[in-house]
Design brief:
Layout (H helix, E strand, L loop, with lengths): L5 E9 L5 H11 L3 E13 L2 E7 L2 H14 L4 E4 L5 H14 L4 E3 L14 H14 L2 E2 L3 H8 L6 H13 L5 E3 L8 E7 L4 E7 L9 H14 L4 H17 L23
Parallel strand pairs: 1-2, 1-4, 4-5, 5-6
Antiparallel strand pairs: 2-3, 7-8, 8-9
């Protein structure tokens, strides 16, 4: 089987393998794409939490993106953990130099165990500059609350926050509703012309580590192969739901999901 597309992943590493670069690579590979990476940070973590975060020199992050992409040009880009202003500025500089398209931003801010993974200055530049440069932003509820200064408790709150992100310059938004205390999960896709609410069964399990990273990478995979963004979100959500349902029950804390399930896609 030959790869259907080439994807550059800009994100942090998770030593436990459930989230970050490791989850991203497993996801795009499972869905038939070829993954390349630019590592922004190395985290020391397992299913019980994050022990420490080691930053990568922002210039080296820029070099990873440029050197890799000048050799193998990606069809799409997934951006995850960007923990400082200098990192975001160098990523923006690389994207501008390479004129890369089809960019998905998963604004990783808070680890599953509650650890903060980004500083306030970085959040500010992400809102002012990076959001405008990407095709879609995919925050979960805590991340959307930080980005919009909005308390989210209902579906209506999610829609309000999504619209606030559009005002900030986002072209498309997918707010993930897994943190709402509801029987079913609702995810909201929204842009200036369209809104779609995805409703799915909620699986009762503590093993959901890496769902955000996995979903954004799945969306990137489908988008890179020619699906539109709304369809890519729909298919990505189906992939993640299947991965949660069949999770391998590993670790003592929030265990990983099962990336070894696949959804067949055809390139247009």
């Amino acid at each position: 089987m030959k790869p259907k597309s080439k994807i550059l992943i800009i994100a942090g590493s998770d030593s436990s393998g459930g989230a970050g670069i490791q989850a991203d690579l497993k996801t795009v590979t499972s869905l038939g794409s070829y993954g390349m990476t630019a590592i922004t940070a190395v985290t020391v973590q397992n299913t019980t939490g994050v022990k420490s975060v080691v930053s990568i020199d922002p210039i080296k992050i820029y070099d990873q993106i440029v050197f890799t992409s000048e050799d193998i040009k990606p069809d799409a880009v997934k951006i995850g953990m960007l923990h400082s202003t200098k990192v975001i500025k160098n990523v923006l500089r690389a994207l501008k130099k390479l004129k890369l398209k089809k960019i998905i931003l998963d604004p990783v801010m808070i680890a599953k165990g509650g650890a903060r993974l980004i500083d306030e200055k970085a959040i500010s530049i992400l809102k002012k500059e990076l959001i405008k440069r990407v095709d879609i932003i995919t925050p979960n509820i805590p991340e959307a609350e930080v980005l919009t200064n909005t308390k989210i408790s209902t579906l209506e709150d999610m829609i309000l926050a999504a619209n606030k992100l559009i005002v900030l310059g986002a072209k498309n938004v997918l707010i993930k509703g897994g943190h709402l205390n509801k029987k079913n999960i609702v995810d909201v896709f929204l842009n200036k012309k369209d809104i779609k609410v995805f409703k799915n069964r909620k699986f009762v399990t503590k093993n959901t580590h890496g769902t955000g990273c996995t979903l954004s990478s799945a969306i990137t995979s489908f988008y890179s192969c020619g699906k539109d963004l709304k369809k890519s979100c729909e298919l990505g959500i189906k992939y993640v739901n299947s991965a949660i349902k069949t999770n391998p029950k590993l670790g003592k804390g929030h265990g990983p999901i099962n990336h070894l399930n696949s959804v067949i896609i055809k390139k247009f």
